[in-house]
UniProtKB/TrEMBL annotation, chain A:
InterPro entries: PhnH-like_sp, Phosphonate_metab_PhnH. This is Alpha-D-ribose 1-methylphosphonate 5-triphosphate synthase subunit PhnH. The lineage of its organism: Bacteria, Pseudomonadati, Pseudomonadota, Alphaproteobacteria, Rhodobacterales. Pfam families: PhnH. It comes from Pseudooceanicola nitratireducens. GO terms for biological process: organic phosphonate metabolic process.
From TrEMBL, chain B:
Catalyzes the breakage of the C-P bond in alpha-D-ribose 1-methylphosphonate 5-phosphate (PRPn) forming alpha-D-ribose. One of its GO terms (biological process) is organic phosphonate catabolic process. One of its GO terms (molecular function) is 4 iron, 4 sulfur cluster binding. It catalyses: alpha-D-ribose 1-methylphosphonate 5-phosphate + AH2 + S-adenosyl-L-methionine = alpha-D-ribose 1,2-cyclic phosphate 5-phosphate + methane + 5'-deoxyadenosine + L-methionine + A + H(+). It comes from Pseudooceanicola nitratireducens. Its EC number is 4.7.1.1. Transmembrane segments: none annotated. Keywords: 4Fe-4S, Iron, Iron-sulfur, Lyase, Metal-binding, S-adenosyl-L-methionine. Belongs to the PhnJ family. This is Alpha-D-ribose 1-methylphosphonate 5-phosphate C-P lyase. Pfam families: PhnJ.
UniProtKB/TrEMBL annotation, chain C:
One of its GO terms (biological process) is organic phosphonate metabolic process. It comes from Pseudooceanicola nitratireducens. It comes from the Bacteria. This is Alpha-D-ribose 1-methylphosphonate 5-triphosphate synthase subunit PhnI. InterPro entries: PhnI (IPR008773).
């Protein structure tokens, strides 16, 4: 890796966690609360990859990815500096959409989402987690119900139909984080969207 | 974090192991009641003594947490003491016996009496995560049954209980169905605790030896299996606590003399102690107890 | 008045102090050093390394000292320590053909290139207590060393291989086996995972399984084609250098069994193989492993599953690990009074209800008899 002349070390080496065990523990706890309570918005901090990576997406990658997790980069996120940064900080192999455990990009760039793993009946956990970068993330818009939600919640989703279709696959289906700046929210396959 | 032993990484596990466990927790939350395989590590306490719960606690813990450990509902049972000390040493976290003050609670065999809220995480130690295991010993077969949602065997077992005993003869680790899909083992909690599982806190289940993690997001629908003519009955000893007088708590029966004399006391020591501190008295409480 | 059981913390501290005292034993007797254990209880050290899945004789000896000679407890200490070690990489496969052998025997050929070398074996000792050992300070007679074996001793099974008389082992070129200690066990496991589980499995369990095949539960007629014990170099590929460098050496015991079988549905008549490879001089374990490996290969070789325990991959793999087994077995010492209480309530309730309903049943029967 270090011998690769295209490797831009000045940008790739920066933006990792200063205190890995503590930063990743805080980040995971926030991400877990999001996945456990669909629609909840949390702030993430401690990491910043190169453009167009948001802080929240950077922190999720640092917290969850390593050489055991193939990552797919879609659209503008599939850029040299982003690839170098992910390789340096996580060691995650970069792959096509079908093999990805994590897929990162804007909602438009991630289309069509039926390329991503949805698990198998024996192993529904072997499904991709999408990290969807969005311009805005607010507790308004689509109405969410299901596990983790007492009555109902709301989240500014990029669309509704795809998540309705995904929920119908339960217990199969992908799961998604949405990131915007430092903000993160999640939508597991169990959530019913309208 | 001042108290943390610097010879170990925060919360003992290395970061790659924690990431692996954290990914399993997220998938567990996304598929409630489904047992996610994870590469459980050998911990410095024996398998069967809470290694799954310890690994899950280590993966969710932050330095600011207040950690509580109970075994059989009690904070001062030896294994609870041992696990609490482990995290004081390796994570430097604050510990508490107060249910309401705890942010992460690791438990063996009980759900606290005090209602848990948002911002709390309840981590269960699980010995045998597979609810169908005693009906079908093969993992290959039980995995197929879950995939096909084929739970007839469980219903036959419960029905045979009724035919033989007139009631379902499972008193703890009473199976539940989660969100109408997966049959799940709630760990060996008494069935009295089953209705509490629809709660505001996040519930995580760790089975170290069997290499499984599963989860219940807050407010997830958890139904104890039963039949229309034999509805689920979360009964307990028909008796108030002899120390604090509580009528709504799960009780341990304690033999107090050679003649077989006995008393009933809350299994949840924090609940009982708090009630007594607030002036509640049971039939056998000392008059001067404060 | 009832006082709740308190003081768990103090009880634990006191128990630990007592344990430390017992471990030391009579202080009039001089303390064992780790080096003494490493050198003089080497076979115990080897077992701890093999089942602990960590090659470090000094730490294994320390674990034996700390565990008061309870080898499963020592293996547990090594396993727990192993958890905390970062994984830097994987070595190249070791070449047992290049083993510097201390011992090398074959039961299938009277002689073979490289010769039969007994090495330091108990095999032909008379098992008579040697009271001379009780008198300390006597130096044993010096062993006469023959010429060392040539650096490359061919595997005996290669001679069968050349004639096509033994099944060819397919070695997948680029298929790196999964790591049992880093991934959850998934079934069907495949042979690489089975071998990993067996090599760290409990010696007694693997021995018992192997013995059961000899007695007819999945019998497969094994001969020890070759047993060799010796030292092999361990090499690690360093991408920065572009080649592998030797990082150390380990002592291994390797056993290849030659098993007969005649005309199955899918294979021509030829010998088949079982394989065992274990850290250290651990010959009973390596032979046992080879027998169980062979028994587990029934499906691949087109044999019938006769329902023998040693043919059941799930049974063998889920029950071979002594750290899992002993932990779960011993956890029933932990308090279970909540579970027990719930059963107590239920059984009282059932008895109460049975008491009433049995009289009702009697009533029905009496009425039927009257009609």
């Amino acid at each position: 890796m270090m011998g690769d002349l295209t490797f831009d070390s000045s940008r790739a080496l920066e933006g990792g966690f200063a205190d890995v065990p503590v930063h990743s523990a805080h980040a995971f706890r926030a991400a877990m609360e999001c996945m456990a309570r669909p629609g909840r918005i949390e702030d993430l901090a401690g990491g910043q990859g190169p453009e167009p990576l948001s802080v929240a997406a950077s922190v999720l990658l640092l917290t969850l990815c390593d050489p055991e997790t193939p990552v797919h980069l879609a659209g503008d996120h599939d850029a040299g500096p982003v690839r170098d940064w992910i390789t340096f900080h996580t060691g995650a192999p970069l792959v096509g959409p079908e093999e990805a455990m994590f897929a990162l990009g804007t909602w438009a760039a991630l289309q069509p989402v039926d390329r991503f793993a949805i698990g198998t009946p024996e192993y529904p956990d072997r499904a991709a987690t999408l990290i969807v970068e969005t311009d805005r993330l607010e507790a308004e818009g689509a109405v969410l119900t299901g596990p983790g939600i007492r009555d109902q919640a709301a989240l500014s989703l990029p669309e509704v139909a795809a998540f309705q279709a995904n929920a119908r696959l339960f217990p199969l289906g992908f799961d998604a984080f949405f990131t915007s700046g430092a903000r993160v929210a999640a939508l597991p396959r169990t959530t019913k969207v309208r | 974090m001042d108290g943390q032993d610097q010879a170990y990484n925060f919360a003992y596990l290395d970061e790659q192991t924690k990431r692996m466990i954290r990914r399993a927790i997220l998938k567990g939350l996304a598929v409630p009641g489904y047992q996610v395989p994870f590469a459980s590590r050998e911990m410095p306490m024996p398998y069967g003594w809470g290694t799954g719960g310890v690994q899950v606690s280590a993966a969710v813990m932050v330095p600011e947490d207040r950690f509580k450990v109970i075994d059989q509902g009690a904070d001062d049972t030896t294994n609870a003491v041992s696990i609490r000390k482990f995290f004081e040493k390796t994570a430097g976290v604050a510990v508490t016996e107060r249910t309401g003050e705890a942010t992460v609670i690791q438990t063996r065999h009980r759900i606290p009496e005090e209602e848990l809220g948002e911002g709390q995480v309840l981590v269960y130690q699980v010995p045998i995560p597979e609810p169908l295991r005693f009906l079908e010993p093969s993992e290959v077969e039980t995995r197929k049954m879950h995939a096909l949602e084929e739970y007839g065997l469980m219903h036959v077992k419960l029905y045979e209980d009724i035919a033989r005993h007139g009631a379902i003869s499972t008193a703890y680790a009473y199976p539940v169905k989660v969100e109408g899909r997966y049959v799940m083992d709630p760990s060996p909690i008494p069935k009295f605790d089953n209705p509490k599982m629809e709660m505001a806190a996040v519930q995580l289940f760790g089975a170290g030896r069997e290499q499984r993690i599963y989860a219940l997001p807050p407010y997830t629908k958890v139904v104890s299996l039963d039949f229309e003519d034999h509805p689920f009955d979360p009964s307990k000893a028909d008796h108030p606590c002899d120390l604090c007088g509580a009528e709504d708590s799960y009780l341990d029966e304690v033999i107090v003399d050679d003649a077989g004399g006995r008393m009933f006391v809350c299994s949840d020591t924090d609940y009982c102690g708090t009630r007594q501190a607030n002036g509640h008295r049971g039939a056998l409480a000392a008059e001067d107890a404060a | 008045m009832y006082v709740a059981v308190k003081g768990g913390e103090r009880a634990i501290d006191n128990a630990h102090a007592w344990l430390a005292e017992e471990r030391r034993g009579d202080r009039e007797v001089s303390e064992l050093s780790v080096a003494q254990i490493r050198e003089q209880l080497a076979l115990a050290v080897n077992r701890v390394m093999a089942e602990g899945s960590m090659y470090d004789p000094d730490l294994a000896a320390l674990a034996i000292k700390q565990s008061r000679g309870d080898l499963i407890e020592a293996i547990f200490l090594i396993r727990a320590y192993r958890t905390t070690l970062p994984r830097f990489g994987y070595s190249e496969p070791v070449d047992t053909g290049a083993m510097a052998c201390d011992r090398r025997i074959s039961a299938t050929f009277k002689d073979a290139p490289g010769g039969q070398v007994l090495g330091p074996t108990f095999d032909y000792t008379h098992r008579l207590l040697d009271f001379a050992l009780a008198a300390e300070g006597l130096e044993p007679p010096e062993a006469v060393m023959a010429e060392p074996l040539p650096p490359e001793v061919p595997h005996v099974t290669e001679f069968l291989d050349r004639e096509g008389l033994i099944q060819v082992e397919e070695v997948p070129e680029d298929d790196t086996p999964r790591d049992l200690t880093r991934e959850p066990l998934e079934l069907p496991a495949g042979r690489p995972l089975r071998l990993q589980a067996l090599t760290r499995g409990d010696e007694g369990f693997v021995l018992g399984m192997a013995y059961s095949t000899q007695r007819g539960y999945g019998r497969n007629h094994p001969f020890v084609g070759e047993l060799r014990i010796g030292t092999v170099p361990v090499e690690v590929d360093l991408p920065e250098l572009g080649f592998a460098v030797e990082v150390g050496e380990v002592v291994l015991t390797e056993c290849e069994t030659v098993n007969q079988f005649v005309g199955s549905k899918t294979e021509p008549a030829q010998f088949t193989r079982g394989y065992g490879l274990v850290f250290g001089q651990t010959e009973r374990k390596a032979i046992s492993m080879a027998l169980v490996d062979r028994a587990l290969r029934w499906e691949e070789l087109g044999e019938d599953n006769v329902g023998a325990p040693a043919q059941d991959e799930e049974f063998v793999l889920y029950h071979s690990d002594n750290i899992q087994a002993t932990g779960f077995l011993e956890h029933i010492k932990l308090p279970h009074y909540v579970d027990f209480q719930s059963e107590l309530e239920l059984i009282r309730k059932l008895r109460r209800e049975a008491g009433t309903s049995s009289s009702a049943v009697t009533g029905v029967l009496a009425r039927e008899a009257a009609e």
